[in-house]
Amino acid sequence: MKKYEIFINPKMLNQLDKDIWMNEHVPAILKIGTNQYSIGLAYRGNIIRKKKKKSYNIIFHKPYTVHGAHEIHLNAEFNDVSLSRNKLSLDFFDRIGVISPHSTHILLYLNGFCKGIYLELESFDQYLLQKRKLPMGPIIYATNYHANFSLLNPEKELKTKLDEGYTIKYGEKKDLSNLENLIAMTNTLSNEEFEDQITQVLDVNQYLTWLACVVCTQNFDGFIHNYALYRNGETGLYEITPWDYDGTWGRDLHGKPLDHDFVPITGYNTLTGRLLHFPHFKKKYHDTLTSILENDYTVETQSGNIDELFQTLKPSLHLDPFIKTSVETLDQEKEFIMNFIQKRSAFLKQHMMKLL
User: What is the pTM of this model?
Assistant: First the structure.
């Protein structure tokens, strides 16, 4: 596991701690092996900012990019006893063919003090597109629960703006207007009009593949939050990608057990509901999910992935001052995840008839 060392003026660190909700970056130095970088450092996340082990956002200043990235995230994964659900989920999406940030565990030190095991995540931005040799196009983050593709917010009140819940990561203001058009057509077109026009705006097959992955991992928030939209510059179609998947594989975002049947096979949000109204989209989703359940979402496939992840963590667990996870805990958590996969897979297979 790589060692990351951050050096920061204590006054700057105090500035971060004085206002944990401040998103402005403060200057610091990041050292990785023999390489040293000038960076901007800030806390990131929502619930995690209140925890003793916080997550960080890093922007590279000098050099401006490192290994093709201008920005990275260091996630504490504090509420996940396995420290691995996020990576396990994003790797799962990547395996299936859904654009997904790559990640790796690192050991973080701050001014010489060990802060423990963190998950380094790619930022989903234009630099990721360049690294993957993907067509450039706008990227919009779903930053809160109002990003539900509906005219109503989660409190069932009319939205004041159709772009509520969204933030431009890369692009221009007009790109939000294009997204508003997608939301408007999802909520106002007749069935005949929607069926005819949606494939001109959305990569439906890609969306249904993403949906199948969210349903398998059971990210309760994943349908109205924890995603980004990328408008492919060549096709002009929206594609969707996952983000923040620690509340998965049988636990919620607080780390508490979540029943294997908590999320229905059809998921939920307005766009999904409209798509699954049509038999040929339903059939495509059925076939995609069937293939995933047979080949990817199995105890045999995921067991090896979990073993590999946990083996990288076990030697460094004792160095993390903020967690109580032990080697025995990880072994128990593997059994927990395997049990969840078995039950979740059986549940989904039992409800396949809803898709025919």
Answer: 0.96
